[in-house]
Amino acid sequence: MKHLLILMLAFCTFSATTLQAEPTGKDLIAYRKAVMSSIGAHAGAIAAMVRQKVDYDHMQAQASAMAATLSTIDDVFPANSSSEAGETEALASIWEDADGFAKAVADSQAAANSFVEAAETGDPAGIGKAFGALAGTCKGCHDNYRQAK
Amino acid sequence: MRLAALSALLLAPTISVAAGDDPGTTAAEVVARGEYLLHAGGCISCHQASEGKDAPLSGGRALDSPFGRFFAPNITPDVETGIGGWTEAEFITAFRHGRSPRGDNYYPAFPYPAYTGISNNDLIALKAYLDSLEPVSQQNKAHELTWYVSWRVSVGVWNALNLEAGVFEPDPSLSETANRGAYLVKHLGHCGECHTPRNALGASITEAFLTGNPAGPEGDVVPNIVNDKENGIGEWTTDDIAFFLEIGMLPDGDFTGASMSEVIDHNTSRLTAEDRIAIAEYLKTIE
Questions:
Q1: Which of A106, B176, B195, B266 lies in disulfide reach of B44, CB 3.0 to 4.6 Å?
Q2: Residues forming beta bridges with residue B68, ordered by sequence position
Q3: What pLDDT, in 10s, does the model give residues B182-192?
Q4: How far apart are CA B103 and CA A128, in angstroms?
Q5: Measured between beta carbons, which residues in chain B are less than 8 angstroms from residue A89?
Q6: pLDDT digits 0-9 by tens, A23-37
Q7: From the CA of B207, how many Å to the nearest CA of chain A?
């Protein structure tokens, strides 16, 4: 009996971590904003090292974190998270030009992976070049798929 | 891992050409300088036929404005359809006074109110570079304008009201670097074309220079870039501005998009590090 009770409690705890209902468009947008901000935060940290504002030995850690976060981007633009669902700078072109957007995302992920490799070598010239290339993919995507601001 | 010299490498200029007004001595130097000026002048964004890297400058790009739709002309050296038959004097007049070799007024979609300040030496070098390109035969598209601007003579009146023709004069109260920046921002780079609000006649409002434009090209809201902590970029350091012009990253780690991303790709990332610093230093002087 006691064992069964523990089992039931365990089950309740587990089910509490799964969703009560489908996420709303607003929730999806809020989550996406958090994800995009964290990518920006990693970029800010990397730039501070690239520009020698600080001399931390964190390039690899930040590069990996950036790449890991960027790898989730494919998931965070579901069709029900457009400006019809809530306030967002994500443009309708994301869903209208799904192939173009998928390519822009894939380019950015590839550039982030190359940046991780460059960070591992520790070669300043390689790091600078790879960060520049990654930056280009961020701009490229914002250019076509994010509202101008 | 200390990243000694990393910044210097990232900031290395893509084109190593002297940034002053020295026209260069050999013909090849003048052409190379002209290519640098093509980037500093932001010519590619409008005159390139398509987005491809090596697409010719044969025109065709549409520029929408409240007065209608303008199509950028062919500036390759094709004699029939481009600017191949132009003399140096005609080329200079086009930039200084907004007048074509036939004596017609250009519409200020061609930013001659800004380009008027470009030095003769720079214009001669720019023409030498354009003349070195492959001629492309491509007829210019006619602009699609609202009736009240479709009469080119009215531009003469507009010019009388709004055009202050003349080569850039350095401001003695600014440093040499800031003056170089002023030349790049006000004239070659024509930053005010997007960043300065316009009056009902479509002329830039001088007193509001670079304070942002709620109705910029393609309907974009263009930000205020004066040295004001509240409304502009007063919180940015000179270095932040120069870095932004190089790779497009804002101080908070975000990346720009829209038209500015194109400006960075085609123009400001191609400048020397010294010229980006000069632009930044000048922007810090505008309150």
A1: B266
A2: B65, B145
A3: 999 999 999 99
A4: 49
A5: none
A6: 999 999 999 999 999
A7: 23
Mean pLDDT calculated for residue range A116-130: 94
- Show which residues on chain A lie within 8 Å of chain B, measured between beta carbons: 39-45, 47, 49-52, 55, 57, 59, 122, 124-125, 127-129, 131-132, 135-136, 138-146, 148-149
Structure tokens at B164: 């202050």
CB < 8 Å to B251, chain A: 44
Evaluate whether A105 touches A141 at the Cβ level (below 8 Å). Answer: yes
Contacts A57 to B, Cβ<8 Å: 1-2
Output the pTM of the full model: 0.84
Query: What is the C-alpha R_g of chain B?
Result: 19
Name the pLDDT band for A3 (thresholds 50, 70, 90).
Answer: low
Q: B113 in helix, strand or coil?
A: helix
Calpha distance B31→B132 (Å, rounded): 7
- Closest-CA residue to A43 (of B247, B254, B244): B254
> Which 8-state DSSP code applies to residue A149?
-
Q: Supply A123's token pair.
A: 């070669």
Write out chain B residues lying below 8 Å of A41, CB-based.
Answer: 253
Tens digit of pLDDT for each residue in B37-46? 999 999 998 9
Chain A residues close to B2, C-beta within 8 Å: 55, 57
Bridge-partner residues for B99, per DSSP?
A: B105
Q: Which DSSP category does B183 fall into?
A: I
How far apart CA A135 and CA A122 sit, in angstroms, is 19
Q: Residue B189's Cα: distance from chain center in Å?
A: 3
Radius of gyration of the CA atoms of chain A, in A? 20
Helix (H) or strand (E) holding B63: strand B62-65
Burial environment of residue A140 by CB neighbours within 10 A (0 to 12, 13 to 18, 19 or more): buried
Helix (H, G, I), strand (E, B) or coil at A56: coil
Task: Give the three-class secondary structure for A91.
Answer: coil
Reading across the β-sheet that carries B68-71, which strands appear in turn? B62-65, B68-71, B144-145
Q: What is the pLDDT of residue B237?
A: 96
- Nearest CB partner across the interface for A143, out of B6, B247, B262: B262
CA distance A13 to chain B (A): 38
Three-state DSSP class for B65? strand
| Interface contact B257-A143, CB threshold 8 A | yes
